[in-house]
Structures are given as structure tokens and as C-alpha cells.
Amino acid sequence: MQNRDELRNTLNTLFLLLAIIGLVLYFAFPAHHIWGLIVIGIGMVLKVAEFFIRFMF
């Protein structure tokens, strides 16, 4: 139980960091929006993984 909660918290923290970094990249470098979207997409994959851990186990 403890390890699962720590994993979920870590995934949530990484998601938030990647979302912030992705937004900064997206708006700071308008010629290269794709990099911001890629970083945000990776963060979304982590959030989906956290979602499955929360509801499946």
C-alpha cells in the first residue's frame, strides 16, 4: 500500500512538472510548438498510468 501511494505521488509530481515545462516550451518558443506538445504528451501518459494504478489496484 505504501509503495503504491509513493509511486502515485511520484507520477503526479512528474506529470505536473512536465505540464509546466511543456507550457513554457510551447509559449516561449513559438516556432517550435511541437516540443512543448511532446513534453505535455509524455506527462499525459504518466497521468494515465497513475490513473490506472489508482483504480485498478
Strand runs, count: 0
Output mean pLDDT: 94
Structural class: mainly alpha
Span of the ends, CA to CA = 9 Å
What percentage of residues falls in helices of 4 or more residues? over 70%
Strand content: under 5%
pLDDT < 50 runs, ≥5 residues? none
How many helices does DSSP assign?
Answer: 2
Shape designation: elongated
| Domain module tally | 1
Order of SSEs, N→C? Answer: HH
Query: Largest sheet, described in full?
Result: none
Rg (C-alpha, Å): 13 Å
What this model shows, in words?
This protein is mainly alpha-helical and 57 residues long. It has one domain (2-56). 89% of the residues lie in helices and 0% in strands. It contains two helices and no strands. The protein has helices spanning 2-28, 33-56. Helix 1 (2-28) packs antiparallel against helix 2 (33-56). The chain is elongated and about 45 Å long. The N and C termini lie close together (9 Å). The relative contact order is 0.19. The model has no long low-confidence stretch (mean pLDDT 94).
